[in-house]
Design goal:
alpha+beta, 60s Ribosomal Protein L30, Chain: A, Phosphoribosyl-aminoimidazole Synthetase, Chain A, domain 2, 7-stranded mixed sheet, 4-stranded mixed sheet, about 25% strand, globular
């Protein structure tokens, strides 16, 4: 579909006013953009020899977001962050964004502008330019489809298929926060039943977890660093949950893995949330998706250099396991030192 904004059917949104406003607000001149918003297609130039990285994501109201728990700006931010994280997992540099939005009858121009402000708030730190998209009326709720275009140096892109037996398994940041934040947003406060021996979740921890869900951080700089320095042998972003996304690496690389559950990086807020709800924090970490942290593997001879360089750059990395032969399967090492099969508790569409 051509990257230009056209409204398909009648709506309270005025098509050409919207095009003009979006073009005025989000178009910035730069040498690599020959033509952006306003034509049938965008035209860009790129440096000779670079590889192009492309990703797209579709968000559906009622499936990926709820207007009762998130503002349009927060929805836009999360939508852009999901695509930025995909580029990060490839070790690429995000550059251009195209946005297609289906607007329900209850939608207004104000809603659309808030949505785009959220998108660009996520994109601006990475100097990503909005160069086009499409609009349509919707008979149902909101539908948001973003396409992000990036670049990566030849032969440096990170894939899911490069893990080798003996590689160390790492994850950035902390995991499980976004799931805890989502549950807090969907949880009627009056119905929260707390065990008499558990502490209440502090306002500070609650705010942190909700923020991690509504405004996640795409680890673009870490992905670029892993790529350009040749550290990672494989990589993926955690969008559906550690237990499921780890399987993608194992399937594509035809390997097994042992995950040390005691090493999983959990924030104090996530631990506090689990304690206040009498949950096992490791299960929150394994199940939780949309943390948009990077999960990657590193050759043993690169381990010391990786960890030393990460410290100097201020990157938070945690070693959580080791790649095993394929016949080993996907196993977890418990806090008691016992191995067991790691169940897939991640989110899966259509099930």
């Amino acid at each position: 579909m051509a990257p230009t904004y056209r409204l398909k059917t009648r709506s309270t949104v005025h098509e050409f006013d919207l095009i003009h406003a979006l073009r005025k607000q989000h178009t910035l001149r730069m040498p690599s953009v020959i033509r952006g918003i306003g034509d049938d297609a965008a035209v860009i130039t790129s440096k000779a020899g670079q590889w192009t990285v492309l990703t797209t994501d579709l968000l559906t109201e009622g499936i990926h977001f709820d207007l009762r728990t998130a503002t349009m700006a927060e929805i836009g931010f999360r939508a852009a962050a999901a695509n930025l994280s995909d580029i990060a997992a490839m070790g690429g540099t995000p550059q251009y964004l195209l946005a297609a939005v289906a607007i329900p009858r209850t939608g207004s121009s104000r809603h659309v502008h808030q949505l785009y402000r959220g998108m660009m708030a996520a994109c601006r730190p990475h100097r990503v330019r909005l160069i086009g998209g499409d609009t349509s009326a919707s008979c149902g709720g909101w539908f948001i489809s973003l396409t992000l275009i990036g670049m990566v140096l030849p032969h440096t892109a990170l894939f899911r298929s490069g893990a080798q037996i003996g590689d160390h398994l790492y994850v950035t940041g902390t995991i499980g926060d976004a799931l805890a934040g989502l549950k807090l947003l969907n949880e009627p406060p009056a119905r929260v039943k707390r065990h008499p021996h558990t502490a209440a979740l502090s306002a500070k921890h609650r705010q942190f977890l909700i923020g991690r869900h509504l405004r996640p951080t795409a680890r673009v700089a870490v992905g670029q660093w892993l790529s350009t320095h040749g550290f990672a042998t494989s990589a993926i972003d955690i969008s559906d949950g550690l237990s499921g996304d780890l399987r993608h690496i194992c399937e594509e690389s035809h390997v097994g893995v042992e995950v040390n559950l005691g090493a999983l990086p959990l924030s104090p807020a996530c631990r506090a949330y689990a304690a206040s709800r009498t949950l096992e924090p490791m299960n929150v970490a394994l199940t939780g998706g949309e943390d948009y942290e990077l999960l990657f593997t590193v050759s043993p001879h690169q381990r010391q250099r990786l960890e030393r360089t990460a410290l100097t750059r201020g990157f938070s990395l945690t070693r959580i396991g080791e790649i095993r032969p394929y016949r080993f399967g996907i196993q977890a090492l418990s806090l008691q030192g016992e191995r067991h099969r790691l169940a897939n508790t991640s989110y899966t569409h259509f099930t």
